[in-house]
Amino acid sequence: MTKLPQNLFGENAGDLSVYNYDIKDIMNRSKVTIDQYVISFLIQGQKDIYDAGSAIHLDNTKALMIAQGNYLMTEKCYGSENYKSILIFFSKAKLTNLLLKKELISPPVKGPNPPTPYFTVEQDDFVKAFINSLSVHFKLHRALSQELLEVKFEEIMIYLLDRYKDTMRPFLLNTLQNDSDLSFKNTIEANKYTNLRTEELAFLCNMSLSTFKRHFIEVFGKTPGNWFKTKRLERSKQLLASGKTKPSELANSSGYKNLSHFSTAYKAQFGKSPSQVIED
To answer: For 179-216, what is each residue's pLDDT tens digit?
Structure first.
């Protein structure tokens, strides 16, 4: 499991740091724990992030601000290119001090419900120029001084807070107040049609696998395997009845290895195979 920013800087990452991330190896749905806020400015490649309630797909037209938490991450390269991004990490204290300084910490505002742990921004001309200004230092193998990094951090944050004035401030205040307030039930409901494994869901819920299974039965009255199978078959029945989806497509989206396994499970649940339903 990867811990950020510790795996990049050691245990002394500090309240504010920047990292030039340039790798060739592909990361495929790896477990990542983020202990600070991070802004990811993607330069080259593609990034997929799964949190407890949703998934987001990122290319170099976007930048992403991510709050503390557990995530599953995939990083992809194109052809022979490396995956490249610039990462700015900052602590809760650093964010709070900035919002206080700019008198943005109060009055309280209503954020998204349920709260989201990330905020997407466009890589417009200003953001691209900001990325380039950081890239120059890395190309020259010249580290940013802490004083300059403070200035650059405040520059990008003030710009984003101004451009996304109706949405970014509520997001930030919401994460400061609710960074661990994702309910177990909402997490499960949000992922009932995904192909995440039980072990991956347990990780996203900050639970061991055994604790997750026990708590799941307490909340839903069934084992995870039986509950997810029932929900996915019920959805398959609805889609099959609409006549717009083929059984082979439903088998794949429901997590079955092949059409035969899906047909057997469907018939056991509803008394008829998918092909018999279509014929009727």
So the answer is: 443 457 778 888 888 888 999 999 998 889 999 999 89
Domain count for the chain = 2
Q: Three-state SS for 65?
A: strand
Cα gap 275→178, rounded to integer Å:
48
Say what the alpha-carbon torsion angle 145, 148, 152, 155 is, to the nearest 10 degrees: 160
Show which of 130, 151, 178 is a domain's final residue. 178
Q: What are the angstrom distances between the C-alpha of 130 and each of 18, 19, 163?
A: 13, 14, 15
Token readout for 37 is 């806020």
Count of beta carbons in the 10 Å neighbourhood of residue 145: 10
Structural domain boundaries enclosing 250: 184-279
**In terms of domains, do 145 and 202 share one?**
no
In angstroms and rounded to an integer, the radius of gyration of the C-alpha atoms of the chain is 22
Tell me which amino acid residue 194 is: T
My answer on whether 21 and 159 are in the same domain is: yes
Element (H, E) at 48: strand 46-50
